[in-house]
Design brief:
Layout (H helix, E strand, L loop, with lengths): L4 E10 L13 E9 L3 E6 L5 H8 L7 E6 L2 E2 L6 H7 E4 L12 H11 L6 H12 L15 H14 L4 E5 L7 H18 L2 E5 L3 H5 L3 E6 L2 E6 L1 H4 L3 H6 L6 H11 L11 H13 L1
This protein binds adenosine-5'-triphosphate (ATP) and magnesium ion.
C-alpha cells in the first residue's frame, strides 16, 4: 500500500541573497522529492550541496524561487497556512544546545504545543506521551543543561512529537554526539517510524545511518544526483566517491571479501546483511 505523501518538492529552485539584497547563484536547481508517512528518508550530500536548504524549505522557513513545496497538500508559499504547516512538519537541528528553551525537561517539551494553544489536561498527556516515546520520561524533571548530547536531542525530538507533527526533518541530529548518543537518536528515529507512522527526513553525513533508512537521496551541487533503496544507491561506489561521499564499512568489507574470492551476494550494506550472507556461505 502506498503511504501518503507528507512533503513534496516539485522542481524546486532556490537562492539566497546577500546583505545588499542581491541575488546569489541558485543553490537548489529543479529539485523534486517526496517524504511519505512512515518512512525514513536519508539525505546525503557533500558540504554545501543544499541539504540544510532543503530542510528550511520543508516547513516554510524558506519558500522556493520557482517550483512548489507542499506539506500535506498545503503550498508553503501561502502564508495563511504557516501555522498549519508548522503543526505538520517539525524540525530538529544539529546543535542540541541551541534547541532547548526551558530549564526543566518537561517544560521544554511543552513549549511547542503550548504555543499552539493546547490546553491542559491534553497538554500534560501530550508531554508525557512524547517523553515516553523518546525514553526520557524518568528524566522529565531534570535540568536540560545536565543532560548528555543524545539525551538533549531526544528532548528536542520529544518537543516535536508533542506537537503531533506527521513528519520530522532532522538536519544532522547526530553530528555533535558520541557513538552512544548517535545510537539513542537513531533508535528514536525508527521508533517514530514504527510506532507513530511519522515520516522522518534524516540529513546525515554518516553512511552507516543512511544504510538503515528506507530510501536515500544524494544531493550534489543543488541537484538530486541519486535516489533509491540503500542497497541500490550504495552499489554506485565510484560515483559516490566522486560526489564526496563513501559507502558503508560493511559494504567495503563485503567488497574486499568478494575480491578475495568469497562468494557473497551483492547489496550488502549493514553488519546484519554481512552476518546473514556470511552464515549462508559457510554454514551449508
Ligand atoms: N544564509 C545563506 N546565505 C547565503 N548563502 C548560503 C546561506 N546558507 C547557505 N548558503 C549557501 O547555499 C549552499 C547550500 O548550503 P546548505 O547549507 O544548504 O548546504 P549543506 O548541504 O547543508 O552543507 P553542510 O553539509 O555543510 O551542512 C552553499 O553554497 C552555501 O554556501
Ligand atoms: Mg547543512
Amino acid at each position: 500500500m502506498a503511504s501518503e505523501t507528507i512533503i513534496k518538492f516539485d522542481n524546486v529552485s532556490y537562492r539566497y541573497d546577500n546583505e545588499d539584497g542581491e541575488l546569489l547563484p541558485l543553490v537548489l536547481k529543479n529539485v523534486s522529492l517526496e517524504l511519505r508517512a512512515g518512512e525514513v528518508l536519508a539525505v546525503l550530500g557533500h558540504n554545501g550541496s543544499g541539504k540544510s536548504t532543503v530542510a528550511r524549505l520543508c516547513n516554510g522557513m524558506a519558500v522556493p524561487e520557482s517550483g512548489k513545496v507542499t506539506v500535506a497538500g498545503m503550498d508553503t508559499a501561502d502564508e495563511s497556512l504557516d501555522l498549519e504547516i508548522r503543526k505538520t512538519v517539525g524540525l530538529v537541528m544539529q546543535d542540541p544546545d541551541n534547541q532547548i528553551v526551558a530549564t526543566v525537561v518537561e517544560e521544554d517539551v511543552a513549549f511547542g504545543p503550548e504555543n499552539l494553544g493546547i490546553p491542559n489536561p491534553e497538554l500534560r498527556e501530550r508531554v508525557d506521551a512524547a517523553l515516553k516515546a523518546v525514553d526520557m520520561y524518568d528524566l522529565r524533571s531534570a535540568e536540560p543543561s545536565r543532560l548528555s548530547g543524545g539525551q538533549k536531542q531526544r528532548v528536542a525530538i520529544a518537543g516535536v512529537i508533542a506537537m503531533r507533527t506527521r513528519a520530522v526533518v532532522m538536519d544532522e541530529p547526530t553530528a555533535m554526539l558520541d557513538p552512544k548518543g548517535r545510537e539513542e537518536v537513531m533508535s528514536t528515529v525508527f521508533r517514530l517510524r514504527d510506532e507513530y507512522g511519522i515520516g522522518v527526513m534524516l540529513i546525515t553525513h554518516y553512511m552507516e545511518e543512511a544504510a538503515r533508512a528506507d530510501r536515500i537521496i544524494v544531493m550534489d551541487h543543488g541537484t538530486v544526483a541519486l535516489e533509491g533503496a540503500p542497497s541500490e544507491v550504495f552499489k554506485n561506489e565510484k560515483e559516490l566517491i566522486s560526489l564526496g561521499l563513501d559507502i558503508p564499512q560493511s559494504a567495503k568489507l563485503a567488497s574486499a571479501l568478494r575480491t578475495a574470492g568469497v562468494a557473497l551476494p551483492e547489496g550488502i550494506i549493514t553488519p546484519a546483511g554481512l552476518i546473514s550472507a556470511y552464515g549462508k556461505e559457510f554454514n551449508n
